[in-house]
Each structure stands twice: as structure tokens, then as C-alpha cells.
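In the laboratory, one determines a bound structure by crystallizing the protein with its ligand and collecting diffraction data. In a computational setting the workflow is compressed into a single prediction: the sequence and the ligand go in, and a structural description comes out. We illustrate the idea with uridine-diphosphate-N-acetylglucosamine.
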Amino acid sequence: MDRFRVVGGARLTGDVTISGAKNSVLKLMAVTLLAPGKSTIHNVPDIADVTMMADLLERLGCKINHDKIKQSITIDVPDNPGHRAEYELVRKLRASINVLGPLVARLGKAEVALPGGDAIGSRGLDFHTRGLVALGAQAHSEHGYIIAVAPNGLKGAQIELDFPSVGATENIMTAAVLADGVTILDNAAREPDIVDIGNFLISMGAQIEGLGTPTITIRGVKTLSAAHHTAIADRIVTGTWAFAAAMTQGDIAIHGARPEHLELPLEKLVSAGAVITTISDGIRVKMDRRPSAIDVATLPYPGFPTDLQPFVITLNAIAEGDALVTENVFEGRFMFVNELIRLGAKIRVDGHHAAISGVEQLSSAPVVASDIRAGAGLVLAGLVSDGVTFVEGAHHVDRGYPNFAQQLQALGAGVTRVE
Ligand code: UD1
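The predicted complex, in C-alpha cell form:
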């Protein structure tokens, strides 16, 4: 197991370039199952999760050509793909659940392993299955698998989600595109990832309106065709670098960033004291002083993203003043707070609230990453600590950040990977 060795005290300065969004690319890959033939996705990040999704699609009979230099992946989908996603792959990659909608829609049957809980919370799938049932499928779970069948095809329906779940919106949308008739999905997720996936579906021949709004209308079509698509830039990786610049009193030009996908996080950084300017192909984030504390509550898009919450807590841990951070999306997401406390952060957790009193500097110690964002957050915490911090669990960070240690080195940080 690799870990990161982080030398504290660096001020991050220089340039980074953002590639495609993990949470979009993985789903775009699953969507290709809806049509036989070769679909190509461009702007694919070089991260472990992409390799895992490619393995899963290969298992389902697809041929994969992943060109890491060109950052593109071509998926050749057979006429009759397999319909079973095995536990050994699904447990490693939660986004595997996104093959459920496309397989039921195209084949009338799917067996997808239940991914189980993970480090950020229980992460139910009830909205996914209820949505498919509303579309006319039968679904039950058996021996750890969701088994969904629709022998007579799917039928358009009116569906309202209890909560604007990203994954459920995607699975329902990717099933409804081939259903007979019109589906109206209310209280749908509005994340830019959903819009990106919807646009790919449209280029495959789907009829979808209302992307990016709480009501998505889908008119089912008989068949879809393979297509090409360029994934949107990763707003969470962009946000990570923006917070990293602010925390380390640095100056980072973030090329390829889409600031319109990050309005609230960037506003919060400005109130912390950062100067954010637009550059020809992205944004520049500069901080000349110790950040001021910022209160944040996570919410579905366009609210503050839960995936950036570890960075807000880390920034507040060394900010001037007291802050309250409220987590409204994933109940387990404060696990990494105990690791930050090991680094000397003053944080008190009460239910889904974390009260943070900023200290001047953290104090290095060995810590353990429990998920992708917590891992990246702990590495940044190491940068604002005195001495040398070891962060165990580098493999979590590999799942979402291409070449994280090298990128940090290029920005002037003493971060290396050690076995
Ligand atoms: C996706 C992202 C994740 C991000 C999250 C919220 C991927 C691979 N992951 O996860 O990085 O943090 O969106 O922006 O894209 N819920 C249920 N029942 C369901 C579905 C969801 O109770 O059937 C609950 C979840 O437990 C959670 C909340 O709804 O509390 C939000 O989950 P959801 O939006 O579905 O997140 P994911 O799609 O799993």
C-alpha cells in the first residue's frame, strides 16, 4: 500500500490543467451500452476508476481502446452485451451501478451487485429501483444482487424523486430513453454531470428536455446509435486546486476550469480572502493572507458540493476565526475529521455539523485516508502542517486525481509517494 509523504510549509504556485470529470466520464462509459457499435469519449482522465469501469464493460463483452496520450476511450459495444455486473468489480467502483438503467432498457434484464456502504455513508439505491419499477420493470434483490427485468419493455411514466439523487436521476434517465412513451422525472438532480450525460444521450438520438432543471422530460425512442462526446471539465478537481491555493496562500492558474459550475465554492473562497480572476482558458486563484473562516452547508447542485466539504474543513482548520460546516448529503462524511484532529485541528462534531476553530498551523502526524476526497484533503492538510506528514491510502486518491503527487511537485510542494 502506497502512502504520501508531505513536507509542510509549501506555498503552491504555478499552473494545473483540468481533465474530464470523473463523475461524468464513468457514467458516459456506462451509457455507451445503450447502442451497438463504437462510441468514443474524449477528455478522459488517467485515473484508476476509468480502468475499473473499462474492465467492467469488457466483462460485459465490449472491446475497449483506451488511448491515454490522446485522453480518449473507444468502446465497441456488441449486439448482445452481457447483463450481469459482478460483485468483485462493483464493490471497487460504485459508479458500476450506472450500468443498471442502460442494461434494463436495452436487454430487458440486468443483474448488478449491490455495492454496499462505503466510507462516506450508507448510499441507498431505493430511488434507482423504484424509478425502474415505475417504468414497468420488476426489481428485487437476491444474494447481494439487484435483479431487474422488463420482458415486455419499459413504459414512460411520471416519477418524482424524494431527494435529487445524482445516481438515481442517471439510471432513470438512461432507462427512459428507450422506453415506450414519455417520462417526466421531477425533483431530478441538476449537476453539470447530468447535463453532460443527457447531451451525450441526445447525440446518440435520445429526446430529452429540461436538463439542468428539476424536471427532465424524456420521449422514448426505439433505438440509439453510437456517438462521440467530449466530457466536461472536473469541477471537483478544479475546486480542490482552488482551495489548495487559498489554504497555502498560493497562486494557481487552473486551465480548463469551468467557473460557471462552481459559483458557490468560488464565492466562498472570495469571502475567505482569495482573489479569483478569469484567464483565457480558466481561472486564477491567489491568496495573500491567512484565510478567514467560512460557514458552509453542503446541498445538491447548485448548492455547495459535498465532494468539496473536506477541503472547506481543512481550510477552516487553519483559518482565522470560527466556522460551522454542515453536511446535508452524506452522513458518514465527517470520518476524516478525526484524522484532521490528529494533525492538531480544533474541531467538534455534533451530528451533521462540524464546529471548527482555526489554528495558525497544523502539526504533522501519520494519518489515514478513507476515501478519494478525504485523501486529497489530508495531503493538503499536510502542506499546512509543520514537519512531515504521512498519509496512508494513496490508492483512494488515485481513483479521482490524475498524477496528484507530480502535480503538487510541479506547484512547488514536497509531496512524494512512498511504499
Ligand atoms: C454522486 C457522486 C458523488 C457525490 C454525490 C452527491 C458519482 C460516482 N458519485 O454519488 O461523488 O458526492 O453524487 O453529489 O457520481 N440516496 C438514497 N437512495 C437512493 C439514492 C441516494 O437514499 O436510491 C441518498 C444517498 O444515501 C445520499 C443522497 O441520497 O445521502 C445523495 O446521493 P446521490 O446523489 O445518489 O449520490 P451518488 O450518485 O451516489
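The chain has two domains: 3-18+233-418, 22-230. Keep in mind that any predicted model is a hypothesis to be tested, not a measurement.
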